[in-house]
Sequence to fold (761 residues):
Amino acid sequence: MSRYIATRAIRGAHAIVGEAASMLDKALSEKGADTPVSFPNTAYYLPLILGMTGREITKVGDLQSVVEQAKGLLHPVPPDRRWTPYLGETLDSGMATLLAEETIMALRFIYGLQPELMPGFALAGGTAFTSPDNGSGPSADGHLNGPIDDIQLRSWGIQLVDGRMPGFAAIVGCAKTNEVAVKIVRELQRRNILTFLSGNVNGRSIIHQLKEEGVELGYDTYTVPFGTDTESAIYALGFAVRSALTFGGMKGGQARNILLYNKNRVFAFVLALGEVDDLKYATAAGAINFGFPVIADTIIPEILPTGVTTYEHVVSMPFNEIEGADDLERAERLVQKCIEIRGVKVRVTEVPVPVPYGSAFEGEVVRKTDMRVEFGGKHSRAFEYLLMADLDEIEDGKIELVGPAFDDVPDQGAMDLGIIVKVAGRKMEKDFEPVLERQIHYFVNGASGIQHIGQRDIAWIRISHAAAEKGFNVKHFGEILHARFHAEFGSIVDKVQVTILTEPALHAEWLAKARQAYEERNVRIGSMTDESVDTFYSCTLCQSFAPNHVCMISPERLGLCGAYNWLDCKASYQINPTGPNQPIKKQTNLDPVKGYYSGVNEFALSASHQQVQEVSMYSIMENPMTACGCFECIAMVIPETNGIMVLSREDTSMSPAGMTFSTLAGMAGGGLQTPGIMGHGKFYILSPKFISADGGFKRVVWMSSILKEQMAEQLKEVAIREGDPDLIEKIADERVCTDVEGLVAYLAEKNHPAPNMPPIF
Ligand code: SF4
Ligand code: ZN
Fold:
């Protein structure tokens, strides 16, 4: 154990615990002990404190015991002579530091100082304060990300658990140059390693560097800026704690298990760029508790293995001494070294394309000015069509271009394109075609410099100048699809053949064929009813978080997160028969109106650990389906109107129920049945089975405007189906009113049917 490191970590811990104590005193006197404290969008209170101490912190006063505990972990700073510090004391200091840092961040939230404001900064995708997963354009609020919310944790979690995403890198500090900063991040993205950014050196942070270089930061690019101070690195450890709680099934307070889970299961490391000060040493000591090694690009003493981390604890790799032709090569080596030290095999699907490839590039945007050529959009037509073929009919790996490449298209021009993917496999089924076809979007987007939007015959693909200069051409779409379908769907796909069409006559011919197939699929999915199948599917993916919750997924009711419909579950079950999507035989139909099936009830009873006796598939009033926390919408009865409101997760305004989404979410979630309130998927609103036992869609008296906009066309059709073509205009939204009085008046004025329907209860 290095005395130098111990000294500095212990000293850093003293300082930060002192700071937490004085901030707490200030908050107690200025705000009072009862002022609520929380991180946004998490059910895990202050996650590190919850995990390590079992304390569920909800108000300022609760933090007193945390600070006391942190003080108790402090040790005297070693005097210059005769004292040999032990690893245990350094680790204690690290833990004290983490407790103090989370306390400080929680208090900063009360003062509106978190997430950190950075003028001119824009996050790619949503922030914790808007919708985390809408993936739409950047929010221009100038805030860094702050802590990661539970939904994002879970959506990454699936990939973290199945190994597609190996883990995370917590970068603290500032790289040698902007160029090096970009290279490090690209190397991590290429390996699908989540990158958390925090800290600074003399006021300059890697976040500034990446921002200056125009690197998109946010959930969508796997590169999350926490804050420009060292304290914000606590969010990485809060994420680590929640991984153990969510996916490891651990409970708050099981500190040892949580730390071991991270050591053994979570591939993570800390990369300290630039000078390391006391607080960084102290925070690094905290990370070592989790088994996360610390790699510094400056000269610091190393700590060799003692068993706390898998290999070395602290490794020094002075940047200028790394072998390499230039700084970029040195940056690449540095990242490689980090991965070696953490000692986990990174699975990179080798995709033979001349640009970096990895899911981290999925969210990348290619702007018009950066674009070499586009397919689809305003000036051309691109379509993609995946179909099943017989095994002996196609040749695996054959990739053909029929028609010209884009060499003759002027810069920033457009061109027609068709991507025909034929797949064959003994376990392949026609039903999987749309599920696999939908993957084209994700797969193609994984290439750096390529942007893919849309699907079917409204696909829209851009190739950037940078990618084109590196030699990326249209045949590479085929290479990508071949590699990825084998890698991700190897259990159902044995052969993949891709044809890229640009030749006009063939393009037209295949476009017509594709459209016919889309139409057939629409009819098939649209015509599939709960009655037309004998099997529903479960989804228990969220049980790690809501242990008694199970989604029951039928053709007419998708999972409440919107990510799984019946066909997806069917495909998922084929791909992974012991996975979270199990078939449920409906068995006896006990009540066709309310949707009680003996098979569903039996499954619910056992999967909910005896918490749920019966589930009605189609009622919000009687034994409604439970919810975890991921629902896209909340439906809730508004008794005064004899109807229900539907509130979108993306709607932050007040609702006529007198509560916002986040408050209501607490009532709707947690795996309990609460009649009158229900979490559900967005598209369930369009289903003929939408609360059909309670009167169906006509009960909707208020709906977030964002839902009306996103589903305008489909809602029109629903209104016609319900025999009231003007129904959507009769439904209020937050622009009309956010209170019950206003709502009642609006319904009367518009002659909404709900008030005259039979009493809802
Ligand atoms: Fe969770 Fe239900 Fe979505 Fe499955 S379908 S991931 S259980 S919300
Ligand atoms: Zn969930």
The radius of gyration is 27 Å. The chain is about 35% helix and 15% strand. The first helix runs from residue 3 to 30. The longest strand covers residues 417-424.
